[in-house]
Automatic annotation (TrEMBL):
GO terms for biological process: methylation. Gene3D superfamilies: Aminomethyltransferase beta-barrel domains, D-Amino Acid Oxidase, subunit A, domain 2, FAD/NAD(P)-binding domain, Probable tRNA modification gtpase trme, domain 1. It comes from Ruegeria atlantica. Residues 428-706 form the GCVT N-terminal domain. One of its GO terms (molecular function) is methyltransferase activity. This is Aminomethyltransferase.
Length: 819
């Protein structure tokens, strides 16, 4: 290690584990060589040293996950050639087993998606699996999948090899240097101060401090919701004849992974009801420490783990290890620039996958810092996706015990977290619960997912990839929206007031569409980055000369606010206020919505008096509400922004007035199915920062000739100038009414794989499953190619004929909306 501490570096990285070393390595690969890494103990001394070193894919369900994983596996397999230090990587293979048909169905759904992105995940027979893993009892297994290129590495060797590579290009590493303070001025990080009083200045500071990251960030008002939890693995004494090249085995039914370890067997637990560790903060002096194992708590889980490899019980326990690993509320990392301080970056919260995902995460962050734009979709890992309450001690205490089980167990498309719920509730919550709502969670909000006939029936009898018990109730909600009228509580939608003399110029810089419009106009627009990639899709409404409302989905509220604030110029006079909590958004949609609202409002709701995409204040009973005539469901209707103090009364009035019109409450499942029939896009769900509005079919909302332009205009102009894209988002409708689509199903054109479904649902008005996804071919994807091609969708190894369309298959001319 270097001996003399410098006083300045272009980038200071806090933490010398896998993530810090990977970030330094990848920064220097990009020519960003003035990098200093500060480690409070010794390199690898936090959690890296006791990691199991698994380099196995699991079930990956996004392009980003696949890109992060494959980059790491390929790097670790070849890093020794560059540095001369082995990572210990061995491609012994990776077996996943299923003990029930639902799990096997999930694995079949995901395998084709993973193969598309270079991961050789393929099904093998149970006999083949047994032959590969002879020590296991696979008598209850119904199916298995193998990735032969996967395997294991040595975490310490990985880190040392990365460190050597970074040092060879100029990075400097210092051990025994604890950062006490992140220095800041005018809202930006400017350096760090160590516990010994040494001060560094820097252009960038990066927190890669693992389980210490949360408390370091909290000192400076930076919210990093992660929590350490106890993580166990057991190593047996040497087992004669155990193959050294035994594949890694993963078994969700026992929440355990199995691999060979120095002639013995390692059993790693991700048990239900895991224990949070040190809620108040991780001791600074904790380095190569171990937690005293709680045999009583984990005993039953160990017994279950042993049942998969019963012969190992004939051999002694060499080691029962318990060490801390940090976990985030949604089991995805925290990566990117922090909203609270400019020039402060983070890469932490690896959810026990720091070796596996460290290289890919370091690569993403390095490009983000150097290029200004991340190279992959980061909507699912961006640190700004969480609200601050998710870092509270109570939330971390309640959510953590569920996380390990969730990471390693069996998954379903509509499964929600059971813990740390009721963080945010609309004032209508009790009314909706009484009406039979089954609630899901979205960014901490309790959201009605669907409605049962009675509150007692509002439960999921059995999770499944097929039709569940609530399916018909949801279908009735969908039908009511298309034929009668529905009411939806959409209070979770984030609402920002943007006011001041420079509010219009700020929003104009960000928006692809023209937002300098007359008061009362609602504008749908995308926000894009300098490469033309989405940063948001939302509505901007001008309420007066200097006042606008920006409304966006709850999943991207933090990102939207951060983007607005980061683009305020030094001399701008503009104030941004999150007003979400002060109002309740009640949506009323359906062919009978005008008749219903006319019964309780004196406002002119005619098409002439209240045109589509306009907003104005109207009366609803005693309340004065801001009404938007917009839709995300493809029907006539209004969004009503009601003061929270009058929301319950307004809801009651709407329900009473609509009873003879067939009014129904509707939930998020119905919102999804309705919007998919109309092929409406949703940022963070089916378009992300790697997609652009032209290829996504939203060119109508891009005004390349608007005065003053906008961020990303040149990039979008260049894309449009190329003519008909080769890559386009299409809508797909299956011809068979039975199969279901959720997302990640492969798209085929004339027998060739050309893309995948981003998100799917059931189009009850169209009579089959419907979804949207990008298709890419080697020539322009013209309307004629779309119309004449033979399209198929692959679901769990079966291909189904489908209709593809550039226009919405439901009400393509928008007659129902503009009536």
């Amino acid at each position: 290690m270097a001996d003399t501490l410098p006083t300045h570096a272009q980038t200071i990285i806090i933490g010398g584990g896998s993530i810090g070393a990977n970030t330094a390595y990848h920064l220097t690969k990009l020519g960003h060589t003035d990098v200093v890494v500060l480690e409070q103990g010794q390199l690898t001394s936090g959690t890296t040293w006791h990691a199991a070193g698994l380099i196995v894919a699991g079930l990956l369900k996004s392009e980003a996950e696949c890109a992060i994983y494959t980059h790491g596996r390929d790097l670790y397999a070849n890093l020794e050639k560059e540095t001369g230090i082995s990572t210990g990587f061995r491609d012994v293979g990776y077996l996943q087993i299923a003990t029930n048909e639902e799990r096997l169905h999930e694995m079949r759904r995901v395998a084709a998606f993973m193969r598309r992105f270079g991961i050789n995940n393929h099904e093998v027979s149970v006999k083949e699996a047994q032959d590969m893993f002879p020590i296991g009892d696979l008598s209850d297994v119904v199916g298995a999948f193998l990735i032969p290129e996967d395997g294991r590495a040595n975490p310490v060797d990985v880190t040392m090899s990365l460190t050597k590579g970074a040092k060879n290009r100029g990075a400097r590493f210092f051990e025994g240097v604890r950062v006490e303070e992140i220095l800041a001025k005018n809202g930006a990080a400017t350096g760090v101060r160590t516990a010994s009083g040494h001060t560094f200045t820097a252009e960038n500071v990066v927190i890669c401090g693992g389980m210490w990251s949360r408390q370091l960030g909290a000192k400076h008002g930076v919210s990093l919701p992660l929590q350490a939890a106890e993580h166990y693995y057991l190593i047996t004494e040497s087992i004669p004849g155990l193959p050294r090249d035994l594949p890694v085995l993963e078994d969700p039914s026992t929440y355990t992974y199995y691999r060979e370890e120095v002639g013995g067997m390692m059993l790693g637990l991700f048990e239900p009801g895991a224990a949070a560790w040190k809620l108040d903060g991780i001791p600074d002096e904790w380095q190569f420490g171990e937690i005293e194992p709680d045999w009583e708590r984990v005993g039953p889980d160990l017994e279950k783990a042993y049942s998969r490899v019963p012969d190992t019980m004939n051999y002694g326990v060499k080691k029962l290890f318990c060490g801390p690993e940090s976990f985030t509320p949604d089991l995805a990392p925290l990566v990117g620039p922090t909203p609270e301080l400019r020039n402060l970056w983070v890469a932490c919260g690896m959810n026990s996958l720091g070796i596996l995902n460290g290289a890919g995460t370091g690569m993403v962050l390095a490009h983000w810092m150097v290029d200004g734009i991340p190279p992959i979709d980061v909507t699912g890992i961006n640190v700004n996706r969480f609200s601050r309450e998710m870092a509270t001690p109570a939330f971390r205490r309640d959510r953590t015990p569920e996380l390990l089980e969730k990471l390693f167990g069996q998954h379903y498309h509509n499964e929600n977290y059971k813990t740390a719920r009721n963080v945010k509730r609309s004032v209508l919550y009790d009314r909706l619960k009484e009406a039979g709502a089954f609630f899901g969670e979205g960014n901490g909000w309790e959201q009605p997912d669907w409605f049962a006939p009675t509150p007692e029936q509002a439960k999921i009898e059995k999770y499944s990839w097929y039709r569940q018990n609530w399916y018909e109730w949801h279908a009735e909600e969908h039908k009511a929206a298309r034929e009668d009228v529905i009411v939806m509580d959409m209070t979770s939608m984030a609402c920002f007031s943007v006011e001041g003399p420079d509010a219009c110029s700020l929003l104009s810089r960000l928006s692809c569409n023209e937002v300098d419009v007359e008061s009362g106009r609602v504008v749908y627009t995308a926000w894009v980055n300098e490469r033309g990639g989405f940063e948001a899709d939302l509505t901007v409404t001008r309420l007066s000369d200097q006042k606008f409302w920006v409304i966006v989905g709850e999943n991207s509220a933090g990102h939207t606010e951060m983007r607005m604030r980061r683009h305020i110029l030094d001399d701008d006079n503009v104030v941004i206020t999150d007003i979400t909590a002060g109002r309740c958004q009640i949506n009323v949609h359906g062919p009978k919505s005008r008749e219903l609202l006319s019964r309780i409002s004196g406002a002119d709701l005619s098409d002439e008096g209240f045109p589509f995409m306009t907003a104005r204040e109207i009366d609803i009973g005693y309340a004065v509400v801001m009404a938007y005539r917009v839709t995300f469901v493809g029907e006539l209707g209004w969004e009503l922004h009601v003061p929270a103090t009058q929301a319950v009364q307004t809801y009651d009035l709407i329900m009473d007035a609509g009873r003879d019109l067939g009014i129904r409450n509707a939930g998020m499942q119905t919102l999804n199915s309705l919007r998919l029939e109309k092929a409406y896009r949703d940022f963070g769900i089916d378009v992300d920062n790697t997609d652009n509005p032209i290829e996504a079919g939203l060119g109508f909302a891009v005004k390349l000739d608007k005065p003053g332009g906008f961020i990303g205009r040149e990039a979008l102009a260049a894309i449009k100038a190329k003519g008909t894209p080769k890559n386009r988002m299409l809508q797909f409708l299956l011809k068979d009414p039975e199969p279901l689509m959720y997302g990640n199903e492969m798209i085929y054109l004339n027998g060739k794989e050309v893309g995948y479904i981003q998100v799917g649902g059931y189009g009850h008005a169209l009579g089959a499953a419907v979804g949207i996804g990008f298709a890419e071919i080697c020539e322009p994807l013209t309307a004629d190619v779309v119309a004449t091609g033979q399209w198929q969708i692959e679901i769990a190894d079966e291909k189904y004929d489908a209709t593809a369309s550039l226009k919405p298959l439901y009400d393509p001319d928008m007659r129902k909306i503009k009536c």
